[in-house]
Amino acid sequence: xxxxxxxxxxxxxxxTLKQICxxxxxxxxIYKAMAKRESSASRRETLRKMASSSEQxxxxxxxxxxxxxxxxxxxxYSWWQRSWHQLIAQVNLPLILHLIQKLEAQDNYYxxxxxxxxxxxxxxxxxxxxxxxxxxxxxxxxxxRYRGQLTSEHLRFxxxxxxxxxxxxxxxxxxTSGKISPGQAMERLEQxxxxxxxxxxxx
Length: 203
Description:
The chain is built from 9 helices and no strands. The chain is mostly helical.
């Protein structure tokens, strides 16, 4: 069944991966446009690093495309697009940031929905107080404020989160072409979560 789903969904998966590559390239170009207009050296360097990070994030979908025998698309970034992004970066910072968030949200929406449902199910099962429930749901967010903090309470979570989220996104795309609901993805999600926890060395 899984093999059949993966085969029939191949065109949709390839199309989605190519769109992600193009969006990441566009986000990088926008950050570069902002950096050119930034007068502060420190903020300019930060924006350049963000552009570089966005370009590096293309590697994962690009590798998957290569494994599927497909080429990685290159963004046709015209002079008027470059001029437009530079202009709005200069005169309307909130607008350009909104554009970046919109592009990133298109990639993250499906995973966000799954993680939100997983957080609700987990915290409801252990009957935490509302404050604790909120904390755990925040931990399950891709923009988790606990990531990188090496406290005893969150260390194990931080270690597995990145691989976990990447595997969930790829597994859901390959198995269902993103057409299943978050609830239907729960079984696969929990299996991956357990596998990732088990794969970590004992601290």
